[in-house]
Amino acid sequence: MKAVTYDTDSELAYIYVLPPKRNRNIRSEELKVNDCILLDIDQDGKIAGFECFGEAAHLCAPFTGKSRLYVKDSDGYHFRARHHAAVRSCYTVYGVTFCFSDGNYQEFAGFDLDGTMYHSAFLQRLTEK
Hints:
The chain is built from two helices and ten strands; from the N terminus they run βββββαβββββα. The chain is 9% helix and 41% strand. The two termini are 18 Å apart.
């Protein structure tokens, strides 16, 4: 299973937070603080995955096909597209904290998943050991 896909023609990255399901009822909404991130919300109120456009997509593209995407600790799962950038602003929605390396929520740095909402064999398979 690929956790990150990237379409070179449209320059769009997609990150799966939950395993894809054919009959999943999903609605989409834009991340309120950054219009380059579009969230897919499942029927349980969790983020199933999200699309990234622009610079965020380019940052996520190198992770396409990677078998280890997350780092896990007692707080949950963490993904950083900008490994050495300081996080200067965060926005939390549906148990996912989106992190940005600027104060205006424009420079996507990664995200953190709440360990109480998002804990699955799917995420564990994608986690560094």
